[in-house]
Every structure is written in C-alpha cells, then in structure tokens.
Amino acid sequence: MPRRTPRTALDRLRTPRRTPKFLKAASICVLIAGLLSPTAAATAEAAASTSEATASNDYCGGRCSDILPPGENGNATLAQILLNQAFGTQPNHAEDQLGPYANLATGYSSLTDAKINSFFNDASFGVPSDQVASTEKPAGRGDVTIVRDKKTGVPHITGTTRYGTEFGAGYAAAEDRLWLMDVFRHVGRGQLTSFAGGAAANQGLEQEFWRNAPYTEADLQAQIDNAVAAAGDRGKQALADVNAYLAGVNAYIDASDSGRYFPGEYVLTGHKDSITNAGTIEHFKVTDLVALASVIGALFGSGGGGEVNNAISLLAAQSKYGVEEGTRVWESFRERNDPEAVLTVHNGESFPYATKPASPQGEALPEAGSVTQEPLVYDRTGSAATSSAARASKTAATTALTSARRGMSNALVVSGKYTASGHPIAVFGPQTGYFAPQLLMLQEIQGPGISARGASFAGLSMYVELGRGQDYSWSATTSGQDIIDTYAVELCQDDYHYLYHGTCTAMDKVEQKNSWSPTTADSTPAGSYTMRVWRTKYGPVEYRATVGGKKVAYTTLRSSYLHEADSIIGFQMLNDPDYVKGPKDFQSAVQHINYTFNWFYADSQHTAYYNSGDNPVRASGVDAEFPVWAQAAYEWRNWDPATNTADYTAPSQHPNSIDQDYYISWNNKQAKDYTAAPWGEGSVHRGNLLEDRVRKLVAAGGVTRSSLVKAMADAALADLRAEDVLPRLLKVVGSSPVTDPTAAAAVGKLQAWVSAGARRTETSAGSKTYADADAIRILDAWWPLLVKAEFQPGLGSDLYTAFGNNLPIDESPSAAHGPTGSHAGSSFQYGWWSYVDKDIRAVLGEPVQGPLAQKYCGGGSLSACRDVLISTLKQAAGMTASQVYPGDDQCSAGDQWCADSIVQRTLGGIKHGRISWQNRPTFQQVVEYTSHR
Prior knowledge:
The protein is an alpha+beta fold. Helices cover 35% and strands 17% of the residues.
C-alpha cells in the first residue's frame, strides 16, 4: 500500500479539504480491493542486490545538489488515486522532495555546507550500492538498465548502445509522467477538452496555447523534417534518439496496459475500463513531441509581442499630451534602456538590439477605438456557452496576447576568484510553477555520447535540458527579448483576403473542433466548440483594425514559429561530454537553441553566460515596439515565408560573457542597450534583490555554497516593494510629523517591518502566521491605492488604464500570475515599483537617471504628495484581512498565509497540500566542481 505522509512539521502537505464527488466511500472500497494487485505487480522488479558505485566520470566531488518538488513519481494507479483522495496517502516518491524544498524557507538562516543536502538531493552521478531501490531492464533489453535510488526514486539510466540508452529514457519518462505527457500533447494540439474533459480551466488552457501555435499535422511533421535536414549528422542522430525514446515510451504503455498498472486517470476520464480493461492508451509519435515542445516554448521561451497594446497606449499618451510630449511620456514609462536597470552583463559592454530608430519607418498605428481582438472560439454549445467558459476564454486570450509576461527563473553564479575554495559556485534553476505532477522530471542518462543528470520537461526527456554533465553544470532563465513582430496586412476582397506583395491572397483557415461529455473525473456537462485561426504568410491573425482608413488584420510573426523542434540540437550538444569541454563549447551549444533564454555555466575553473534565441534582423528604421505594414520593405531581412526563416543577429551580438566576477538573473535586463520586450525593466526590479546580496558577498570574498544559497533564499522571502520602495515612501510621509493616530500606527508597523528585513516569513516553521502580519496586510492594501492616487490624476484615466494593460500595477504573492496562475510562488516580476521609485525620488529632489517625463505624486509638490500617501495609507490601514485577502478555491477569506501559499496545481489525480510562500526556482541546482577533465 502506498505510504502515508508523515505528520511532521509539514502537516500542511495533507490533502486539501475538498474531495471530488466521484470518490464515494463505497466505490473506494470496491475499487481498491480490485486494484491493489496490479500496483504490487508494477513494483515487483525492485532488486536491492544491484550494485552501482558512484561514477568515475563525476568531477563534482560530492558538491552537486538539486531539488525538484513535489517528487519524481508522477504516475499513480487508480487505487493510489483513490487512496490519496480518501485518506491523503501518497504513492512512493510522489512528494518526498516537497518537504525539504519547503523547509528551506525557515531553515536557511543556519545553513552550512554540511547541511545543504538536508534541503537538496545529492546530485552525484550513479547510485551507491546500499542506496539502490530497484533495477530494471525495460522490455527485457540487454543494452540498458534503469536503477532507482531509495531516497528519491530518480531513474539512473545506463545504456551500452545509443538506442538502448534512449529507449530507457523514454521508458523511464513514461513510468514517471505518462498521464502528464498525454495531457500536454493534447494541449499542444488544441485537443485537451476532448481528451480530459470540458472544465473551464481545460478550455482556457487549450485556447491559450493553440492560438499562438495552430499547427496542422503536416506542420508538425515538417518541423521534424526541416530540423533534421538542417542539422546534418546531428540532426540524423536526434531523429534516431527520438525514435528510440518513443519506442521506450510505447513499450511502457503496452506493458502497463497489459499489466493494468497504467495511470488511473485513464479510467477516471473514460479512456479505460477498470473492470474489463477495455479502451486504448494511444501510442506516442514524433509529431506529439513537437506539439509538446510548442507548449513549453510558448510558456517559457518565446519573447516579444504586445505591439498592438503598445500602439494603443502611445495613442492615448499623444491624445492626452499632444504628439511630441505624449511620445516623450510614453517613452519614459516604456524604459527601453533605463540607465538604472540591473544588468546581468554588468561590465559596461553594449549589445544593441531592438533599439529605437532615429526615424521610424513603416509604422501602422491603428485609428483610435478601431482595434478588436480576433475571435478564436465559434459555435459554442452546452457547457461551452456558459459564463465561466467565456471568462476562461477571455483570460486565455489576454495571457496569450500579452507582451512577454512569461518570465520566471533565477541564477546566482560567482567566479572562483571570490569563493573560499577558488572554484566557481552556482545556485540556479527555472521557475516553472508548481504542479502535481511537476512539468519537469529528474533523471540521469549515461550512454554513448550522453552523460548528464538533471531536469527535463516530461515527454521531451531524451536529453537532460537543465542540469549537469561530467564536469560542468548549466541552467537557464527566461530572457524575453523580442523575437515576435506584429504586421498590419491590408485586407482586400473581404475580411479573409489580404495583400501580399501586391497580390490579393486568401488566408488559410485552420480549425480544431472539440466536444466533451461528463466523466468520473470531470462532471462538466456536455459541450462543444470550434477553435478557428486565420493564418497569413505573416503569421496568425490576432486583431483587426483600421489604419489610415484602410481595413487591416494585425498578425504576429515569431522567429520560432514552425521551428520549435530546432532546439533539440542544442540540448543534444549540452549532453555530449565530447562536445562541451569548456565555456566556449557551452556557448556554442546554446547558440543552437532558438528559445529566448539566458544560459549560465559553471565548471571548476570558469563561468559563462549566453543569451539565446533567433533574433531577426529587422529592416532599417523598423521600430520593434509597434506594428508595421506587411510590405517587402519592412520584412525581416531575407525572410522566406515558406519556411519562416530569415537573417538573425550574429552570436557575438547576443549578450554573452565568460568569467565575469558574478552573474545574476531574475528575468531582468540582460545588458546595456539590449531592449527586451517586457515593460518594467527600470530602477527597481526583482533582479535587484539578487544583485544587492550577491554583490555584497563578492565584495567580502570567501563565498561558499551555503552563503550563496542563503542569498537566494533570503531574496526568495523578500517583498520587493518593502525592501526597495517603501523606505522612500515613508521618507515622504515622515517629511512632516505624522499626527493622525491611524496613519502613525501604520507607519510604525511598516517601519518596524523594514527594519526587520521586509520579509514575508512565518513566525516559526509551520505556524502559518506571518511575522509582521499587520505591516504586510497594510502594504498589500496600500500599494494599489497609492499607485492609482499617485498617477491617475496626472495621466488621466484612459492613459493610466492603457499603461496598466502594458504593465500590471502589482504582482504580490497572493495575486494571479498569468500562465502559471495563483499560488504559483513567482512574484514581484511585473509591477509599477520602478515608476513609484523614480517619481518619489524626483518629488524628494533626489537625483534620478532616466526619470519619468513628469512628476506625478501630488503634481510634484512634496506636501501634496505626502497628503496623497497619508490619505491612501489610512484607507489601507482600515481594510480588514478579509477585504485584502478575499479567499478563493484554496483559502478562506482573511487567511493571509494561505493567500500567499504555494499550491501544487493538480494535473492528475494525486493532490498535495500547500507550502509556505517562497519566490525561488522550482528545479534548483547548487554546484561547485572540484576538478576538470
């Protein structure tokens, strides 16, 4: 029987309160009795007698660690799901990494190097013989072995042939994430509702991703063919690896089906019968992996877009202030190249990209009020026509079309010159949200031409995507530079024809029709709809408008469109010990990845950084911020619409560096003059939380693994607003004595919180109550009030709203976070903190580099600004916890800790409890190599 979660300090890991309606007591007992034996059969191959010593090709000296909550095991049989829902029991290794991960929030202050693996896994290669939990020869093959360790159940795949190695990787992936892989291949194809049910969340998820990647089966196959053809021998090897990987996946499907230990979600969603075993689990094919890759690329590695929203806010600014002054105001809020922005490459080197042209050419700004969003969903029936379905569609569209709010992940890397050992140290990883099961999975792969351990997205784990090799580690953060442009195609004949190089050309109509019926897992009533996208040579249609009296469709074209499969070559190189032997080889490898990422590297001697992505070379005079006419003069240089290829900026023009004193990244600006698509890269950014701490460590010298982890963990609990903006707000408030008792009491609480470190942290481990709870509540209530009172009077409601569409006002832990949703951990990336900081400093008379075009708080008057702040502070102080934290499907109104808490969002049948908020990577490595090949 699956183990029960221990009732320790992590009692908050228990199953949430609600139990789905289908889990009635009688059915639980009957089904468990009939399904326990397949569960036992599935684990009968455990063999502790296998001996596998720590690998001789490991140069980390026991100083490599990693963590990936909730746990490696993301599959569960029907019996295990029912036990979890009824009694809170967990399958083995389903959440054994969640406790250590959560405990760092209250345990980091006393961290030493010796204690690191109390909060992380030992990421050494191999499994000591006394730690072997099971050994498996998948499908009886003699050329590959899968060993799992006792502590975490991570698969260690060792092959004697390349085919066998990749077969084992596919088999292990299916063992650990089959249901999740199936879910996301259907998301990528826009078929989730037909597969998993018509819940409003499922409708929104498939709409969000299919809108930007509406591929046909022929498109998916063409991606494979083109990627292989373009990469020579490595392309051929990649295809062979993929086919071997798929053979392993499908072998597990067949074995689990005949053995009846397949994921129980297939029964609950009506694909399999629990009694007769009737039904089918479809085999995976190559195009499924491209569909998967399109989802991951869109979620984490596809920077740009938002040109239409930029145009709308520019027009609002010009309407308010006139063209010249309105443009100046707009540019000051855009902060394209803010001189106060925190940088990853901070040595002063310039990497100009997407900079403002002196004389913009080809701009196609819409007429005011003419923009309408292109519909995606048609012919709604049944539950697809409900208000909740409409809300889901609206949210999905906003998320899909928003300018590059896809960042997450952080990195702290210190050169050996400043460490105690003389070897570089890195603490880095991606923030991919929190899911059950997790989107990523851990593995070690050892075979001909492959030697790596780390994390990969489920279903794409033929290679380790983030992790370590024999004597080096690498990781990534989302970069967000602009590889998406918006074109205005002039319509002709009707709304579905457009001018291409002077010829009236028909748009391509691509449709996906979905329907669903209630199942045990999803009781949503029957419904259906059709998703319809109109495609042009310049990409899918996203908006319609008029420009200069002409009807146009606005399309979005990204350089990775039809090329999600290309990046496989870069990941193949990263896993190849014969390819990566130092920092330049690493940079060469990641140059083959067309996703927009910041890549970091550390070995025993060197550190390195490189910004990846296919950055298109734009026509002279084109401003990447705004839509341009779909005419030959304004197309990407040497763009071929048949293949969506063009000239791209040279690798040397991408921000890159080797052996800088230190690197930090938290989705901040990469380098001087390198314009990224997201708004908000100004004087205050969450990257400053890392920059300030790491710079201080480096200045003192003697950096250790534990001290760098402490810096990360401390930043993970910091409230950016409180640390970097609140002191100056209080300075304005305190510029005269505060006589109002309500305001004075609030100021006292806020000042005490700042003095204590401005962290959102529990009073003690497991207390579920914040220290400085009142101060936190007051700031959470005050921030939106003060921002509106500070800026709306000067900007006017229209421009204030337009700027808010470009950049949200706030992103506190209790707010929603775009594609990763609420309770997602990642916080303080997007907000008006830089605007408030610059404006308040200007009102105080302090120097400001790159100031806003005008002073806004109190019209620039210190006393009037003080009045605004005190008035809104009193209002905030009077708001109750229930008003500030209104509650949701996870939390009761007024529960501050719960409102912030992290939830492992269920993508299957197993649930986990909440953990205390941390703003840190989901998968994380701590590395310090002691030697090199």
